[in-house]
Every structure is written in structure tokens, then in C-alpha cells.
Amino acid sequence: MQDGRLETGVIDRTFVDDAGVRWIVDYKTSRHSGADVDAFLEQERQRYAPQLDRYAGLMGGLETRRVKVALYFPLLKRLVEWEPRHG
């Protein structure tokens, strides 16, 4: 429950690492054909941060462990990780 209403979410992948950190990973099959891959990845991080922040908040309602979130781009073989605002 968030703000008195039922919240749901579909998490692509979640696991707990050896340090006890809960990871929430969202897979993105986006393609990028431009030269500045790092700028593209930062733009995608900003775009999806609210969604992953929400997922972290939902997981925070279930447990108290530290949470990290990430976007995984299998076509680019890149993982973009950060600490969420909530969770």
C-alpha cells in the first residue's frame, strides 16, 4: 500500500548479493547507433529513475535491507547502476 492505495509493479530481475544488498534490475533492449553511448545511457537513467525508485519503494515496504537499482542493456553489454531515492 502506498498513500492508501494498492501499488503493483513488474520487476525484471531482483536478487540479494553476498553483501546483503537487494538489487533491482530493469532490462532495456534499446539500441543506440550514435557516437556518445555514455550520454545515451545517462539519458536513459534519468528517464527510468522514477520507475526504479518506485520499485525500490515497493521493496522497501517488504524488507529493510539496502537497495541498489540498475538498468541493463544486453545489446550494448552495459549496466548502469545507482542508489535509489527510496528503498
Write up what this structure looks like.
By secondary structure, the chain is α+β, with helices and mostly antiparallel strands. It has one domain. 28% of the residues lie in helices and 25% in strands. The chain has one helix and four strands; from the N terminus they run E-E-H-E-E. The chain has one helix spanning 37-60; strands spanning 13-16, 22-27, 67-73, 78-82. A four-stranded mixed β-sheet has the order 1-2-3-4, with helices on one face. A hairpin with a 5-residue loop joins strand 1 and strand 2. The longest helix is centred in the middle third of the chain and has 24 residues, at 37-60.
Quick synopsis:
With 87 residues, the protein is an alpha+beta fold. The chain has 1 helix and 4 strands; from the N terminus they run ββαββ.
Keywords:
4-stranded mixed β-sheet; 87 residues; alpha+beta
The rounded Rg comes to 14 Å
For the biggest β-sheet, the strand order reads: 1-2-3-4
By secondary-structure content and strand pairing, the structural class works out as alpha+beta
Number of helices: 1
Our measurement of the CA-to-CA distance between the termini, rounded to an integer number of angstroms, reads: 14 Å
Mean pLDDT: 90
Number of domains: 1
Percent range for β-strand residues: 25-35%
List the helices and strands and how they pair.
Layout: E1 13-16, E2 22-27, H1 37-60, E3 67-73, E4 78-82
Parallel strand pairs: 2-3
Antiparallel strand pairs: 1-2, 3-4
